[in-house]
Amino acid sequence: MMRLGLRNLLRSPARLLIVALLIGVPFFLLLVMQAIGQAAQQQTEVLKQNVNNTLQLRARGAMGHVNMVGNEDLLPQDALERVRQVEHVARVEPYLLAMTPTESTNFAMIVGVTPGDTKRLESHGEAGNPRILAGRDLTEADRGQQVAIVGQGFAKWAGIAPKDLDHATVTLDLQRTHPVIFALDRPPAALKIVGIYASGYVFGDMQLFLPIDTFREIYGVPAGISWLFVKADSAEHLPQLEQKLRALLGDVADIIAPTNAAEFQNTATRAVLRLTQAGAVLAAVLMVVVVFFVMLLVVRERAWEIGTFKALGASNRGILLGFLTEALALCAVGALLGTLLFRIWGGPLAQQAFGLGVAPFLPAQYKDTLIQALPLTADIGLATAGLLVLVDVVAALAGSAWGARQIVRLSPMEAIRHE
């Protein structure tokens, strides 16, 4: 009966193709939703590793921006070495910060970092390590060089497209002012833009990262640190490390324990997961509906055949086994087709699906930027493959349930008389 069920699958090639497409499209949708959800979870895990076990230090009572009105105080340079000597410190990353006017009353952040250090969103930890969209990241060879990478928002404001990276530059005019920015008596500096990144956060994409040595030269800051990010060797040691740092630098530094990964998880990640789960359920329901109508049609078409089997002594169990085998095989063909479509077009269409179906429900700061920062791929791991098999079986069984009921209730005499 199982072999018969598999052969029955090919009795109508045209119907097989149409039904496979009808089942394959929901499977494709399921894979897209799964990919978006997994990417959001991966982004959250990255943030937990780079943010939740990290303390931020800055000069007491100041933001530490070298040209911000009333907030230009910096941490002393020796704080860097003093912090490195503290127990449970795994990594120390110094930042230097400045602001530059853009349009109207808006501004962008200029951030000096050591190449290879984590690139964080100014005043928020969500950015983690932003994803490079075009060009390259800063490297050790860039130390002291007039190079920088910019967020996609900054690039758009500056009129820089990915194709322009071989000759794109940005000129920092330190004498321009703003309601919260004072001028510096320093010459303008031209920076070669070598990369464009996406942070996943609107304001995070309005930043420019350059080597910290280059920052010191341009802004005339031979010593001092705007922010110091201190990463603990484990999250468990973070409270103990915070106490030690307060005892060491409490008179000159404010110490902040970022919770931005949790905030990101509560806002963006949960919203994305809820919507992708809803999309996955919708896809599964569509599969069940397609299988329901197809198998119901099959039962009605083959009523005489079913009656004949019963008249010859075939059991309901055997006949049901054949029809369920056909339903499972039908779903499997649809799943393979959906997987093939996903491997070919999954990445681009997942971005469109995110923009149309997910982004409108996110907090405003993530609507237009998060998808670019997510590590979205068309790869299918073991967990996704297992989900496909499970959905295949559930859709086949649930969709065939009513048809199976009709088969059990059908008597040979009724089938033959009907025929």
Explain what the structure shows.
It is found in: Cell membrane. Its main location: membrane. Belongs to the ABC-4 integral membrane protein family. InterPro entries: ABC3_permease_C, MacB_PCD, Macrolide_Exporter_MacB. With 419 residues, the chain is of the alpha+beta class. The protein folds into two domains: 200 residues, no CATH class; 206 residues, no CATH class. The chain has twelve helices and ten strands. Strands 1, 2, 3, 4, 5, 6, 7, 8, 9 and 10 form a ten-stranded mixed β-sheet that branches. About 1% of the residues have low confidence.
Q: What's the shape? A: elongated
The multimeric state of the shown protein is single chain
Number of domains: 2
The proportion of residues forming helix, as a percent range, comes to: 40-55%
Largest sheet: 10 strands, mixed
Low-confidence stretches: 123-127
Number of strands: 10
Distance between the termini: 22 Å
What is the element string, with H for helices and E for strands? HHEHEEEEHEEEHEHEHHHHHH
The secondary-structure class comes to alpha+beta
What is the residue-mean pLDDT, rounded to a whole number? 85
Portion of residues in beta strands equals: 15-25%
Rg over CA atoms: 30 Å
Please tally the helical runs, counting DSSP H or I stretches of 4 or more residues: 12
Topology:
Elements: H1 2-8, H2 13-50, E1 54-59, H3 79-84, E2 89-101, E3 107-113, E4 131-135, E5 147-151, H4 152-158, E6 169-172, E7 189-198, E8 207-211, H5 212-219, E9 227-232, H6 238-249, E10 253-256, H7 260-301, H8 303-311, H9 316-358, H10 370-373, H11 382-409, H12 412-418
Parallel strand pairs: 3-8, 5-7
Antiparallel strand pairs: 1-9, 1-10, 2-3, 2-9, 4-7, 5-8, 6-7
Helix pairs in contact: 1-9, 2-7, 2-9, 7-9, 7-11, 8-12, 9-11
InterPro entries: ABC3_permease_C, MacB_PCD, Macrolide_Exporter_MacB
Main location: membrane
Transmembrane segments: 278-299, 319-345, 380-404
